[in-house]
Amino acid sequence: MTALVLWFSPEKHVHDGYVLAKVQGIVPTGNKYRNYFIVDVFLADGTPLRLTTARGAIVGSITEKACLERRRKEASGRVFYGLTVPRSAKTGERILLEM
Q1: Rg for the chain (alpha carbons), in Å?
Q2: Is 27 helix (H, G, I), strand (E, B) or coil?
Q3: For residue 51, what is the enclosing H or E element?
Q4: CA–CA distance from 73 to each of 12, 40, 47 (Å)?
Q5: 52-71: b or e for each residue (b if 16 or more CB lie within 10 Å)?
Q6: Which domains does the chain have, with CATH numbers?
Q7: CA 83 to CA 74: how far, in whole Å?
Q8: What pLDDT, on a 0 to 100 scale, did the predictor assign at position 99?
Q9: What pLDDT sits at residue 11?
Q10: Cβ neighbours of residue 58 under 8 Å, at least 6 residues apart?
Q11: Which helix (H) or strand (E) holds 19?
Q12: Mean of the pLDDT values across residues 12-30?
């Protein structure tokens, strides 16, 4: 059992900043137990991303741009994104990329 826990140990990740991305579309989906939204966005460099959220506050704040939180894994340097409310990016933190 200990070997499984050590093998599946998650990498630490750090907050890298916020990114504004152009929204391609929003698709509501789900099942009888949970509703969520699929949001397709393009980063400033043209990279397409498909993100999901179950939080209505995030989807309600999306217009033609979406605020994304950029996170980076410490060991591998892999970058990943998550949807966040726009007020997170307005708290004085730098915005890394903007459309």
Answers
A1: 16
A2: strand
A3: strand 48-53
A4: 6, 23, 19
A5: ebeeeebbeebeeebbbbbe
A6: 10-97 (2.40.50)
A7: 20
A8: 46
A9: 73
A10: 83, 84, 85
A11: strand 13-30
A12: 89
- Percent of the chain scoring above 70 in pLDDT: 79
Each residue of 79-93: b (16+ CB within 10 Å) or e? eebebbeeeebeeee
Residues in the chain: 99
Give the residue with greater pLDDT, 63 vs 94.
63
Match 């004085």 to its residue by tokens: 92
* Amino acid letter for position 6: L
Q: What pTM was computed for the model? A: 0.75
Here the tokens at position 20 are 């504004």
DSSP 63: S
Q: 């939180």: which residue's tokens?
A: 69
